[in-house]
Amino acid sequence: FSHNFSNIYRSVLKSKHMKKFFDYMQIIEFDVASDATETFKELMTRHKSTVSEFLVENYDWFLTEFSAKLLESANYITIRQDIKILGYILLNLSNSALMTCYVGSKDNLRILMNLLREASKNTQLDAFHAFKLFVANRNKPTDIINIIMVNRSKLLHFFASFKVDKENEQFEADKAQVAKEIAELKAKGPLFSAELHKFPAGHLPIYDHSGHLMITEKNHRTR
């Protein structure tokens, strides 16, 4: 039975219909979008070894679709649901190869830094759980190090005041470790420090789709 179930999962994941989930999860009809999201979550979290195999083979298009259509959606509910799914995927030990690739991308870092600025504490918390993987990575690419270094003071200021609604010792420990890692991080090569002055005090930076720093007022999401 287990073998047959695995084959069914594999068939669904490898079908041409997989890409349609990214559209269905954004449909304006709430029931359709909700059902699509729940089904997608089941596919991505239930049969871990099969999912891991799929993600390794389809990393590029999967993360491109996931990020552009879901994590950068104008709809708050879409972001709220799917940043949590991303956390499930990245923190699953079966997906360690995918996680390693994910934390090497400055575009992924850009998206998470933007999500840390969301008004929703839940979205901020889920974004934090993914962001901390970038900081914990012992083999950070130079551009990842430099982005964090350039924004170090703002990140440390943010984490100093970042609270969750309920007291959570593990969260506080993780946050303290992330802040420590950021404070002790050393640059690799020249920093583009000329851009530091662009950001108002107390605000995290916004990046455009090319990974360039830009000024933007706080995004207003459809709720």
Characteristic key phrases:
12 helices; globular; mainly alpha; 2% strand
In terms of topology, how is this protein built?
Elements (H helix, E strand, L loop, with lengths): L1 H13 L6 H4 L5 H16 L2 H10 L1 H13 L4 H16 L4 H7 L3 H10 L5 H16 L5 H9 L1 H10 L7 H16 L21 E2 L5 E2 L9
Antiparallel strand pairs: 1-2
Helix pairs in contact: 3-6, 6-9, 8-9, 11-12
How would you explain this protein's 3D organization?
This protein is mainly alpha-helical and 223 residues long. The protein has a domain at 1-102. 63% of the residues lie in helices and 2% in strands. The chain is built from twelve helices and two strands. The chain has helices at 2-14, 21-24, 30-45, 48-57, 59-71, 76-91, 96-102, 106-115, 121-136, 142-150, 152-161, 169-184; strands at residues 206-207, 213-214. The chain has a two-stranded antiparallel sheet with strand order 1-2. The relative contact order is 0.10. Residues 193-203 and 205-220 have low confidence and may be disordered.
Oligomer: single chain
**Number of helical segments?**
12
Strand content bin: under 5%
Average per-residue pLDDT, rounded, comes to 83
Report how far apart the termini are: 42 Å
Helix content: 55-70%
* Rg from Cα: 18 Å
Largest sheet: 2 strands, antiparallel
Overall 3D form: globular
Main structural class: mainly alpha
What are the segments in which pLDDT stays under 50 over at least 5 consecutive residues? Answer: 193-203, 205-220
Number of beta-strand segments: 2
Instruction: Strand order, main sheet: write it out.
Output: 1-2
Q: How do the helices and strands follow one another from N- to C-terminus?
A: HHHHHHHHHHHHEE
GO molecular function: protein serine/threonine kinase activator activity
GO biological process, one term: intracellular signal transduction
Family: Belongs to the Mo25 family.
Pfam family, one: Mo25
